[in-house]
Amino acid sequence: MSLHGFSAQHAIISAINGFDVNMTGLTRTPSESLTSLLSRGGINSMSTTLFLIIAAFLLA
Questions:
Q1: pLDDT tens for residues 18-42?
Q2: What are the structural domain ranges in the chain?
Q3: CA distance 54 to 60
Q4: Choosing a second label site near 12 at 20 to 30 A (CA), which of 1, 4, 25, 29?
Q5: pLDDT in tens, 3-13
């Protein structure tokens, strides 16, 4: 299953590791600032922040 060329497998990988512009199959290379903006995120990079938020709720 694919939505605009983005498969379910790529969606799961993006949720865990963050988005990668190469997954989209674009014919043109986006600007470096756009690539930097889109390449952030994923559960792995947000785990420290999520841990702090959960700990704050538990200790409040």
A1: 887 777 777 777 888 887 777 777 7
A2: 2-59
A3: 10
A4: 29
A5: 666 788 888 88
